[in-house]
Design a protein that fits this description.
about 350 residues, alpha+beta, Muramoyl-pentapeptide Carboxypeptidase, domain 2
Length: about 350
């Protein structure tokens, strides 16, 4: 999955053990996320056993801002340390108390994580002009995971306070990392850029936005409002919502431009794919989530017209030889791609 677009999203608007990872027959999707991927790693400090958020909420960063909970990878993740590093950076950049606004203060917060302070200069929409801010990571999924490099897509909501006014927004950040002798190091940030909203969204977009069975994060919602998502994606969302409750992580923006580790264009930046991280309230990455549920969802996505369905398992059959695929990148979500 892929799309490196830099973005601001402002509007009022997160585990499953690796299945068949590395097994014979697993293939990378035609417009999937990565070429080859490692197997699941042991749990590092800071991860949770089955969940994605630590149990203790943070204090509010200012009057009127909601309390938020630090997001932490579960023990079932593939290379959870990479996700943890990416999320810690986004959480540090996107939240501050009164008197701690601005790029200089953000650089100090990044330095406290032993990362290059210049990363704050790439934060874009995570550093709006405001007295205080709070950020809630919804999900962190792989845009690609290789042996020594990774793309972690950090999906978040953000609230800012200026004087007595609180505004809600959020974005998705493609966090790039490399593995070093001392651990995972962030090398770049690429926030989403969905574009301006159309004056009057099409009827299918309005139907999706009003459907309680389709949960869209800020950047994905903005993608639909900008009119840059293909009708095949919209139709499939509505069809699947007739059977399932879906939590979408990524549609078009905030995703690597090419299939990670290759030069092949992804379907995401062309508005021809979407990812789902939770089905009927069950995170795809959770080992307690029914394999039958995930497989049924993947088959129904194919029946809805997707030529390229990836997930933590590879169903048998398919209309084409490689309609279904599985790899470590898709251990944490289901990818649903379309040709046109």
């Amino acid at each position: 999955m892929a799309g490196r677009r830099r973005t601001l999203v402002s509007m009022t608007c997160i585990s499953r053990r690796a299945a068949l990872l590395g097994a014979a027959g697993c293939v990378c999707g035609a417009a999937g996320c990565t070429a080859r991927s490692p197997r699941a790693a042991a749990r590092p400090p800071g991860t949770t056993r089955t969940g994605t958020a630590s149990p203790s909420p943070r204090p509010s960063h200012g009057g009127g801002l909601p309390r938020t909970t630090p997001w932490r990878p579960s023990a079932a993740e593939v290379t959870p340390a990479a996700k943890l590093r990416a999320v810690q950076l986004v959480e540090a950049l996107g939240a501050w108390r009164p008197g701690e606004s601005g790029t200089a203060a953000a650089r100090s917060r990044v330095s406290a994580l032993h990362l290059g302070p210049a990363l704050a200069d790439q934060a874009g929409p995570l550093l709006p002009t405001a007295d205080a801010a709070a950020v809630q990571v919804i999900d962190a999924q792989y845009g690609g995971i290789l042996a020594d490099s990774a793309s972690v897509l950090v999906v978040c909501r953000q609230w800012t306070r200026t004087a007595d006014r609180v505004s809600a927004g959020g974005t998705t950040v493609d966090v790039r990392l490399v593995r070093t002798a001392s651990g995972w190091k962030v090398t770049a940030l690429h926030p989403a850029h969905p574009g301006a909203a159309e004056p009057r969204p099409p009827s299918r977009v309005r139907e999706i936005l009003s459907d309680p069975r389709i949960e869209l994060p800020p950047a994905a919602r903005a993608d639909l409002l900008a009119g840059r998502v293909h009708d095949s994606v919209l139709a499939a969302m509505l069809r699947l919502a007739g059977t399932y409750r879906m939590s979408v992580s990524v549609v078009r923006s905030g995703h690597p431009l090419d299939v990670f580790g290759t030069r092949r264009p992804s379907d995401h930046p062309r508005g021809r794919a979407f990812d789902v991280w939770r089905i009927d309230g069950h995170p795809v990455v959770d080992p307690g989530t029914s394999r039958a549920l995930v497989e049924r969802f993947m088959r129904d996505a194919a029946a809805a017209g997707s030529y390229n369905v990836g997930g933590p398992l590879r169903p048998s059959g398919g209309a084409t030889a490689n309609q279904f695929f599985s790899d470590a990148t898709h251990h944490d979500h289901v990818h649903i791609g379309f040709r046109a």
